[in-house]
Every structure is written in structure tokens, then in C-alpha cells.
């Protein structure tokens, strides 16, 4: 009986440790705020995005792309730019040119084609803000 109680306690401690580790990892992810240039003509061109400290009151309505809140994995690194032969100016820019299923560009297109705004981060920590 003592063995069963100890085993159960060990499992509970291990489970709690894993849960706390996952929460800490989620808190430590860096997020980035990018505003889309109103002069931009192509939402899939990273050149039209500027990383800024973002206030959601800058994006008052629904309709056109305004801004993004994304995690590190949605931002081009130097290694990715070189490996994919992208313009060097894309380092540190959002991967909006990737419109494959589940990618950032597809998320933006889906949000813009759906009425209303969904300001709840998706499973990848992404939020798309819209304006008129």
C-alpha cells in the first residue's frame, strides 16, 4: 500500500512539474508587434510591416489589415533569409509571404475574409488587428 501511495505522489509531482514548465515556456515566448503600412499594396510583402510598440486603439475597426501580434517563430531570422534566398531586408520582418495552410499569411487572409475581429491569440500566439 505504501508503494502505491508513493508511486501516485511521484506521478502527481512529475505532472505538476511538466505543467509549470509549459506555463513558464509560454510566458517566456517573445512577442512582436508589427503595423502594416497604409501605403502598402500587398499584405504578403514583409517590407510593408514595421515593428513598433503597439496600442490596439490605433486599429479602431473591422475590414482592412492594421497590425499583427506574433511570436518569434513568425519572424524571419538571418539564417532563414539566407537559406530561402529572401531579401536581406526581410530579417526581423513577419513571415506574411507564407500563405500555406497554418502559416502566418494564411492566418491574415482568413481573418480578413471573416466578418468581425477575433482578438484572441490562436494556438501560435497570433492576433490580427483590422481597421476600416
Structure write-up:
The chain is α+β, with helices and mostly antiparallel strands. The protein has one domain. 33% of the residues lie in helices and 17% in strands. The protein is built from 3 helices and 4 strands. The chain has a 4-stranded antiparallel beta sheet with strand order 2-1-3-4, with helices on one face. The chain is globular and about 35 Å long.
Q: Work out the strand percent.
A: 15-25%
Count of structural domains: 1
How many H/I helices?
3
Major beta sheet, specifics? 4 strands, antiparallel
Radius of gyration: 20 Å
What is the terminal-to-terminal distance?
Answer: 67 Å
Q: Any idea what the shape is?
A: globular
How are the SSEs placed, and which strands pair?
Blueprint: H1 2-28, E1 31-36, E2 49-51, E3 64-71, H2 78-83, H3 104-113, E4 127-131
Antiparallel strand pairs: 1-2, 1-3, 3-4
List keywords for this structure.
alpha+beta; 4-stranded antiparallel sheet; single chain; 132 residues; 3 helices
Can I get a quick summary?
This protein has helices at 2-28, 78-83, 104-113, and strands at 31-36, 49-51, 64-71, 127-131.
Amino acid at each position: 500500500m505504501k508503494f502505491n501511495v508513493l508511486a501516485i505522489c511521484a506521478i502527481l509531482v512529475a505532472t505538476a512539474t511538466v505543467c509549470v514548465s509549459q506555463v513558464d515556456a509560454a510566458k517566456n515566448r517573445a512577442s512582436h508587434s508589427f503595423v502594416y503600412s497604409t501605403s502598402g499594396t500587398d499584405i504578403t510583402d514583409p517590407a510593408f510591416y514595421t515593428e513598433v510598440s503597439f496600442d490596439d486603439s490605433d486599429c479602431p475597426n473591422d475590414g482592412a489589415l492594421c497590425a499583427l501580434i506574433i511570436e518569434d517563430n513568425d519572424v524571419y531570422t538571418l539564417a532563414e533569409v539566407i537559406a530561402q534566398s529572401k531579401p536581406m531586408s526581410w530579417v526581423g520582418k513577419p513571415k506574411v509571404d507564407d500563405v500555406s495552410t497554418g502559416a502566418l499569411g494564411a492566418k491574415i487572409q482568413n481573418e480578413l475574409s471573416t466578418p468581425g475581429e477575433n482578438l484572441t491569440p490562436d494556438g501560435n500566439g497570433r492576433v490580427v488587428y483590422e481597421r476600416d
